[in-house]
Amino acid sequence: MFYLCTSIFIPNLVEKETIYILAIESSCDDTSAAVLCNDKVISNVVSTQKIHEEYGGVVPELASRAHQQNIVPVVHQALLRANIDKKQLSAIAFTRGPGLMGSLLVGTSFAKSLALGLDVPLIEVNHMQAHILAHFIVTEKNTKPEFPFLAMTISGGHTQIVRVNDFFDMEILGQTLDDAVGEAFDKSAKILGLPYPGGPLVDKFAQLGNPKKFPFPKPKVDGLNFSFSGLKTSILYFIQRETKTNPNFKEENLNDICASIQYTIINILMDKLKKAVKETGIRHVAIGGGVSANSGIRSALKNTEKKYGWSTYIPKFEYCTDNAAMIGIVGYHKYKQKAFASQDITAKARYIIQ
User: Fold this and answer.
1) CA gap 216, 232 in Å, rounded
2) Which residues contribute to the annotated binding site for substrate?
3) Residues forming the annotated binding site for Fe cation?
4) What CATH code is carried by the domain that includes residue 161?
5) What's the pTM value of the predicted model, to 2 decimals?
6) Where is the Gcp-like domain (predicted)?
């Protein structure tokens, strides 16, 4: 299934040097391609793999096979929607990592081959860095963060607080010691019998429930690091205990359970973010990653902005989840610095922000 996001492109607003970047994202289970003209998105196509739903999570081998099937039509659609010929491309940007190795290999191999065939530069991109720099995609209403700022990257595989001094000067201040926040949402949903991906469903039901109905413990973790494995265990034991006395407990209290889980997770995130602001003195705060699409987190960040006088930044919904537009904006800024990759480059399943 294809989802197309296209922004309005106004030629007379383009910088003197017109740079066309074709970006490719294949880190997990979404195959995406985008075309950017400088820092403006003119096409952003995402093909979502539905096959994983029946397994309750992403199956790496199936994901890589689906990428092989999807990548050519996705790139074709991106170029078609952008109304440009591949010979007009200035460079090819691609996700090098982190992610599933099989999925990354498909995008990396395709990008290297296309760049070689067109004789254009190749640009490698860190997926997590791209989630942060998605804020610099020019849209109708967005305000770009001011350097330095704090970025909280929250996704299915990562939870980090990053100090961003410049486009390519970043420092991880804290990160999860075990599970990521997105996994905590999805595993909690699985415990409740909700289908994959469960995170959006927890968010949906949470909006109808009482967030303080069922209190869950918050882990005590030093510094700015996170831990979610204990929370998942406490949710599991809670559900097992309650369903012993009432087999219909989950169904009868679904909204309140989801609201209570989401409330606890959001409090954990916001407590660490407030601590980071206090320690660094930086009051510009941005979020990124797939979980930043969660309505409760977005609302909590805005409420914190009002309460503490922060400047907060939330990306457009289509740039929260995995997409090639965010890869393209990193590619654009790397292109300006002539930071090109060689044809010898390989994918990296583990790729730390530096």
Assistant:
1) 10
2) 153-157, 186, 199, 203, 294
3) 127, 131, 322
4) 3.30.420.40
5) 0.91
6) 40-328
